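Inputs:
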Amino acid sequence: MKGLVAALFSGLLFGAGLLVSGMTMPSKVLGFLDVAGDWDPSLAFVMVGGIGINFVLGRLLLKRAAPLWAPVFSLPTATAIDGPLVWGAVIFGIGWGLGGYCPGPALVTAAGGGQALLFVAAMLVGMAAEDWFARRRALAQESCVGDG
Amino acid sequence: MHPFLQALLGGLLLGGAALVLMGTIGRTAGISGIVGGLWKPSPPRGWQAAFVVGLALAGGAGFALFPSRFDAGDSAGVPVTIAAGLLVGFGSRLGSGCTSGHGICGLARLSPRSAVSVGTFMAAAGVTVFVVRHLLGGGQ
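Outputs:
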């Protein structure tokens, strides 16, 4: 229960950060990505703040033996720089550049309905499709191993 | 407040939210991973739902209290919005993360995978905007 409240609070704080930074405005995001046009560099400071505080305090945090209300820190274990990582980033980047929404701002903005809601619906379909392909790939590999 | 300061303050809040999630339940604040985890068969998915509810509540409060933090009109048409959503959903899951998980949490941990991902999606997004605005002449 404490964990759920913490996650809810973290989501609220994250949403507030997106609102304050201006990431909830696709026009601003596209202005940031439009380096050759009337470039608005301000959103680079979102990364400066977000990465900065995590670089300093996250380092101290991960020195603890465990988080407050869970047995372990669940950190990503993958290290390979492979096709899915790069192609996924290419596909994601094209979608981000087309709509001006990445997943967090889309979810926050969808609370007001409108096109952001449509974006979120399409995003969920895209995620489910990737999940389906990934499971098919895993099954195909399993059956290959079984046959061999 | 100057837009640079707004962005910096917003970034600190995002980073703070990520620290809260890691410090309490040991999880990464990667939005695509959290949303994608909602329908994973493994049992502990309550925290993901709670986080998404928090995001939506922030959005609802934002629309009620600070409507100027949102665009007045839509920046893209319906077909482009659907295509963009499909690509963002598929790509972020295939690439194991998006602007939050790779862009903030991963880079702060100096993860080489995240550095490659961020460099790649920034470039892809920049090229996409260039093509749409300057070659095709669409957008603003």
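Remarks. The two ends of chain A are 47 Å apart (CA to CA). Residues 2-147 of chain A form one domain.
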